[in-house]
Amino acid sequence: MNRRAFLKSNAAAVALPFANSPGAAADPMPRQLLFGADYYPDQTDERLWAQDAQMMSDFGLTNVRVAEFAWALMEPEEGRFVFDWLRRAVSLLHSHNIAVILGTPSAAPPPWLTQKYPEVFEVNDKGMKLSPEGRRFTCPTNKTYRRLALSIATAMAQTFADTPGVIGWQIDNELTLGSSPRCYCKYCRAGFQDWLRERYATLHALNKIWGTAFWSQGYTDFSQIPVPLPSGAPPNPGMALDYDRYQSYANVSFLEEQLVMLRKTCPNHFITTNNVALADTIDLRRLFAKLDFASGDNYPGYIMAHMAVAGRSPTPEQIAPITSMSHDFMRSVKQGKPFFIMEEQTGKAGQPTFCPQPEKGHLRLWSYQTVAHGAMGINYFRWDTATFGAEEYWHGLLNHDRSKSPGYDEIRQTIRELKALGHDALNAPYSAEAALCFDYSSDWAFAIQPGQPKLKRYSSEIMAWYGSLWGGQTAIDIVDATLDLSRYKVLFAPVMYVVSKKQADNMRNFVQNGGTLVAGYRLGVKTSSSQIVKMPLPGLLRDVMGVTVEDYVPMYWQKQGVKFSQALSGPDAECEVWFDVLKPSGAEVLATYTTGAHAGKPAITSNSFGKGKAIYIGAKLNQAGISRVLRHFASAAGLRAEIEAPQGVEVAARGTGQGRWIFLLNHLPKPQTVKLLHSYKDAITGKPATGAIDLEAFGVRVLRS
Q: Are strands 434-437 and 476-479 parallel, antiparallel or unpaired?
């Protein structure tokens, strides 16, 4: 999906897996500080380049990203490569001590290519072939497109492998973030069939796992298997889930073809790609697995604008947990490794419409928020504002007339401050004692069969739980439940609809060894193949949770409330859209339903299992209810905030022991006071910080412990 659709909703055969796909380079992290901008010499009069380079140097930029949308200039006809202009740009930037990250341009092919090879076009989920003119309209499976994309990337790599000033690569740009995030063309169908042969080996196994006896879907040849385009009824859920997996694989393997070449040709350069965290049409953990570090794009104001289009009017404080979670996800995709912001908002942003004008302090606040959650550098999008093309409304550091933007001085100050924090702060670890499980199989299966029309998105429930815990009371990693969980005190697992045996075993061991598992409704409903489990719910985790789901209720006209026991004392909560009715088999009842045939029956339970506890929240509670309940369980698990901050002030920390940087971020448009129980030093000014400290509207303070 494109940025607009993604934010509004939230807020030729394929190659087989590479046998020789390289992992990350031995020492891939940049040694220099990276505070740069996204720059487009291909869109700028060459007579202005020298002025730009001097201004960037005076501004304090260390690097730029270039050329990710310049394919037509670099290869004006097939096989004829023209890099003279790019060499001049790189040389000029290097002479001003500005390093260059090169982008491979496969997100937007030139017109000669699509005219000569019309088979490369993507087909959307309605069966319609996309048209050229925009970007992200090509098939990730098509052999012709892969060959041509690899060819231009190879020519770039061979040309610039030893060029002074070039330090790294961005492969492609925002994979799957187009108007059609998945392709359904004949090449993807053939690629899907090959992928299924590799995955299942035999048709007997596939037919059994998908349950093709239903509606006479039994396949006798792999070539019969379709893609999930519109038909007379919904598709087989197992086939649809596997197709989502295949499309993620196809995009990742498309990237990895370029990665293999870049590792060989440019061994001294780092390699990354960029994407929007929680872009759930591609498995970001697999996307970034073999890259040197993850890179995210951060546009808080853009989120505000498109939530408003969707009928909501969010405040800056309400946007803050969404951006925090995005950063936590980017940090977590590579198990806590510092990440990079490849595109950071610099002003009003937009395509057909503008997002809100950032208030004074916003740009500094958003930059510090990325660093507080684990970023090691930031590129601001963009240097100068385009006067032509689809992103004329996307304001950069320079206005359309090349005057300084309203945020110019604020960002320059921010870069100066962040540089002063130094390498140690920007690469310090982020330590979390709580984890939130984000599971792509649950996400995709839930979208295929949500169970109730208002349960539209798995990520919405993930965000509701994260937002309940947000603000500094709980530092959170976003995790894959198959990985090591032993360092966490508590694991939150909302709507874990699909639970594999590996996940169940790992979560069971986590609780047995003293961890607290807090799970939400619809737990363990499906197998990894999207079949309903043939056992009482919550399926593979029934022994851990100590309950059986007696019934489940999709709500339409009904009303339902939840009354809490003394252990969770507080006002009754409302239940929305869905509730599971629980029958304990050893678990303690912490809340019951208040209305109708299920009045008095368990809604929330807690089960002692081994050395730990497993809590089942069977009701989809309203936001006030789920916030209070989750904060209670976080506190009961032993999570403590070092600084108790007022509402609207986010607290985040990097580093360990005494060598820690504590970030105080005020997301409200009014001053706030934070009381300190210990003595600190202001990391920016070097002055002591004790007693109470003031934060201006949208203000930031960084303390050293």
A: parallel
Measured distance CA(231)–CA(76) in Å, rounded = 41
| b/e code 489-513 from CB counts within 10 Å (16+ = b) | bbbbbbbbbbbbeebbebbbbbbee
Q: DSSP state, 29? A: S
Q: Facing residues of 340 across strands? A: 295, 377
CA distances from 365 to 374, 408, 410 (A): 15, 14, 10
Helix (H) / strand (E) containing 620? strand 619-621
Distance CA 191, CA 13 (A): 4
Distance in angstroms (rounded) separating the CA atoms of residues 314 and 408: 25
What stretch of H or E contains 194?
A: helix 186-200
CB 641 within 8 A of CB 581: no
Short-list 167, 177, 156, CA closest to 108: 177
Structure tokens at 263: 């590792």
Query: Are 339 and 294 contacting, i.e. CB atoms less than 8 angstroms apart?
Result: yes
Task: Tell me the three state secondary structure of residue 216.
Answer: helix
2-41 per-position pLDDT tens digit:
444 444 444 432 222 222 334 555 456 677 899 999 999 9
Exposed e or buried b for every residue in 37-74, given b needs 16+ CB within 10 A?
Answer: bbbbbbebeeeebeebbebbeebbbbbbbbbbbbbbbb
Phi, psi (5° rounding) for residue 696? -70, 170
Peptide bond into 538 cis (omega under 30): yes
> What's the one-letter identity of residue 375?
A
Separation of alpha carbons 200 and 197, rounded Å: 6
**Residue whose pair of structure tokens reads 């500005």 in the numeric block:** 98
The 10s digit of each residue's pLDDT in 319-368 is 999 999 999 999 999 999 999 999 999 999 988 889 899 999 999 999 99
Residue 505, SS3 per DSSP: helix
Spell out the alpha helix ranges (H) of 333-435: 362-372, 408-426
Residue 497's nearest CA partner among 456, 449, 464, 535 is: 449
Whole-angstrom distance, CA of residue 613 vs CA of residue 648: 31
Q: Using CA atoms, how far apart are residues 262 and 548, in angstroms rounded to an integer?
A: 52
Would you say 167 and 101 are in contact if contact means Cβ atoms under 8 Å apart?
Answer: yes
Q: Which of 71, 70, 262 is nearest to 158 (CA)?
A: 262
Helix (H) or strand (E) holding 36: strand 34-38
| Spatial distance between the Cα atoms of 665 and 697, rounded to a whole number of angstroms | 10
C-alpha 302/C-alpha 258 separation (Å) is 31
Cβ neighbours of residue 326 under 8 Å, at least 6 residues apart? 276, 277, 278, 296, 298
Residue 409 is which amino acid? D
* pTM of the shown model: 0.95
Q: How many CA atoms lie within 13 A of 637 on its CB side?
A: 28
Query: What radius of gyration do the chain's Cα atoms show?
Result: 26
Amino acid at 363: L
- The Cα 210–Cα 531 span in angstroms is 7
